[in-house]
């Protein structure tokens, strides 16, 4: 199921989505958490992107494992990349949980002049903890995405390009 898309290994395609979507989702979540004025605009995108990180990270992880099974000689070369990808999946899972919590717990103003639709924050301490969680886990997702991509790129391209 996770081996190929057409004639290409699925992993080669999915990683490009992961490299873009995961940092965008994390940044959207961070802005949503830290800028109350924009919460009305970012509430749904932050939630959907946060949930999307789990799907993309899972497909990238599974397709990578299928790729290594199809080409066993890659095993040692991509070992670090594989370990980092596994950890990235768990960070994305935690980020999705935090995104759902932020969606439910963080208040925000309405874009309407009447103020209709304004969502009150449950409590200030809860808001601060939720904001901190979104920022910390969002930064971890970005950091681990870069580390995972770097390890994969080194496994594939090290020694292939002229200096």
From TrEMBL:
Keywords tagged on the record: Membrane, Transmembrane, Transmembrane helix
One protein family per Pfam: DUF2231
Organism of derivation: Kribbella sp. HUAS MG21
Coiled coil location: none
Regions that span the bilayer: 12-34, 41-60, 87-107, 128-146
Domain DUF2231 per the UniProt entry, residue ranges: 8-160
Listed InterPro entries: DUF2231_TM
Protein name: DUF2231 domain-containing protein
Keyword Membrane: yes
